[in-house]
Amino acid sequence: MTTASPVQRKVPRPRADALRNRERIVSAAREMFTEFGPDVPLDEIARRAGVGNATVYRNFPDRDALVREVVCSVMDRTNEAAEVALAENGDAFEALERFVHTAADERVTALCPMISSTFDQHHPDLVDARDRCEELIGEIMGRAKAAGQLRTDVDVGDIMMAVAQLSRPLAGTACFSVDRFVHRHLQLFLDGLRAPAPSVLPGAAMTMEDLRKV
Predict the structure, then answer these.
(1) Could you tell me how many helices (H) and strands (E) the chain has, helices first?
(2) Fewest C-beta atoms under 10 Å: which of 34, 107, 132, 196?
(3) 11-55, pLDDT tens digit by residue?
(4) Is 78 exposed, middle or buried (0-12, 13-18, 19+ CB in 10 A)?
């Protein structure tokens, strides 16, 4: 006598409209967190996303889950931009430039304060995305250094600190009112990274470990 094997049920895939709603929520949350900080009411996020409050809570049971998803999604897009830069076969420094400008557009640094103040900064999803980002930027910089185009006394932390400082609005100013200056000032910074270096930098190069201690 043989025993029938249990029927393996397929896990249902999310409907396309459910995925679109989730993407709209994350996009709206990213915009509003950047503009107003992590304490913006969730019903305002739902309104901007064009969904009901119940849809927000069905996808994200609490604020921490939504903030984590927003930060990780921005990190993922930043990593994708770094992968695109590494895939280019042209000028290594120009690839670094394009990556830096794209990272600034993602406004990842405007979301960074939420990592320590809103949810566990050691969450596996965040750690994985952050480690991958550090690895990719290191590779981009290494290629530019090997080509003799990037000064050798800088590290990944120097790049990310500059993006953080130059893409964040001044206190008391509207977040989007300084957008027209961000890429101008980033380019000034990038020009200062070119080799041969015209001066000796004080102190030591900033690593990502140094940046995490700031």
Answers:
(1) 10, 0
(2) 196
(3) 455 567 888 999 999 999 988 887 777 788 999 999 999 999 999
(4) buried
